[in-house]
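[Q] Does anyone have a clean structure-token version of this?
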Amino acid sequence: MPLSPNPYAALKEASQYVRLFRGKTFVVKVGGEVLAEPKIRKALCEQLALLWSFSIKVVVVHGGGAELDAVCEAMHIPIEKVAGRRVTSPAVLDAAKMVFAGQVHMDLLAELQAAGVPAVGLTGLDAGLVKAHRRPPVAVIPDGATEPQLVDYGLVGDIDTIDPHVLSHLLEGVSCRWWRRFPGGKTAPFTTPTRTPSPRVWPPPWAPRSCSSCCRCRAS
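[A] Here you go.
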């Protein structure tokens, strides 16, 4: 009779990665085609919530090209792409603001919060997160052509600098906050008790979060 597999083997294998990446920051780029499907978006957010529950900080950078195309068609805005990249007119830029900072943004935030992640949404404008300049015309080979042509992609930019201070502030604030997890996956903020428990039993066994910067974590 074959031996049953060790039920703790997978957990033991995963624990080494949890120890390795705890407290680190993962930057996850999510394409718009992934977010367009509700079931796939939900599954993705559940996986991101699992990383967050292991004290891994997560920054999500999302797209939304399919949704932008749909909005442009609904608003009768011409869609032009050269060599797979979008030409952004003023009208397309207005539609992009509606999609990226609106529809796609809010749907993703709602799904993350439903998975138990206290997610915060930002754009590149917030707190000067991203600084860029307008991209000059570039030489590309359009689809079906054999010779490069000079193409102006319109109101698109090339990044100059990234100022991560606002991200660091938010990530540290979330990582220092304690959350109590109840049956069914619901979470609620943990209220600091009046009498501080002994460092030997801190954090409490039901508190899955930990950090290296708050006073109680240092004391333990």
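[Q] Thanks! Anything notable?
[A] Confidence is low (pLDDT under 50) at residues 189-201.
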